[in-house]
Amino acid sequence: MEQHKYSISKWCTVSDETVSRLDQVVFEGEKGDFAAFAKAYYKANEIDYPKFFKMDALSKLAFIGSECLLMDEEFEKPSSDIALLFSNASSSLDTDLKHCESIVEKESFYPSPAVFVYTLANICLAEVSIKHKLQSENTFFVSPRFDIDLMYAQASYILETNRAKQVLCAWVEYLEGTYQFFGYMVSPYKQGEVEHTRENIKNIYKR
Fold first, then answer.
1. For residues 16 and 177, is the Cβ–Cβ distance under 8 A?
2. The whole model's pTM is what?
3. Closest CA to 102 of 117, 90, 88, 89
4. Which one-letter DSSP state was computed for residue 134?
């Protein structure tokens, strides 16, 4: 099979109540308060997705980072042109703990359904897909660290087999107030863009 050339067309990081895109800070929120920061980002960018306020923290983090990467993408909706590959280390553990707490507090086996619905990490994929009307390949991996080899191989496979025209890859980790989003778009190569290689992913991630 002929190998095509792809690029990392853009990237985004979200941590410490700061959103950066292409290494430039595009938004800063109140330090030490993720919930307030997430709400402020939503309002500042005039996002229209009321369900955002009911999401768990992991989904809000994935949503913010994905919005930063997708908000200026022009594509027909619904679309199967953009695939999603997300990963993290703790899956939905932050929400799982809240789910357990709600059982103890209520002393019953009928905890809040609003919390229970987010006890799967891949729900954040659904939220991003619904917002942008994506009907595409999507997968959530759980690994101890950001696995560059895995993400590179999976993104390359999706593109080479024509399952999508672009892939949004992201590390989305949230646990008890500590969080990090690192995401990037893999697209057909354009002159001047960063080539999609393992080494370039590593270099951007470590900046």
1. no
2. 0.92
3. 117
4. B
Contacts of 13 (CB under 8 A, 6+ apart): 19, 20, 65, 180, 181, 182, 183
Residue 149, in any domain of the structure = yes
**Kind and range of the H or E run holding 202:** helix 198-205
pLDDT tens, position by position, 54-112: 999 999 999 999 999 998 888 888 899 999 999 999 999 988 888 777 666 655 556 66
Pair of tokens at residue 57 = 């923290």
| CATH number assigned to the domain comprising residue 185 | 3.40.47.10
Rounded to whole angstroms, the maximal C-alpha distance in the chain is 61
pLDDT in tens, 24-59: 999 999 899 999 999 999 999 999 999 999 999 999
State the pairing for strand pair 24-28/138-142.
unpaired
In a domain, residue 101? The reply is yes
139 three-state secondary structure: strand
Q: Distance (Å, rounded) from C-alpha 134 to C-alpha 150?
A: 23
- Give dist(CA 144, CA 125) in Å, integer: 20
In a domain? residue 1: no
**Domain coverage including residue 117:** 6-205
Number of domains in the chain: 1
The verdict on residue 145 lying in a domain is: yes
- Average pLDDT for the chain: 92
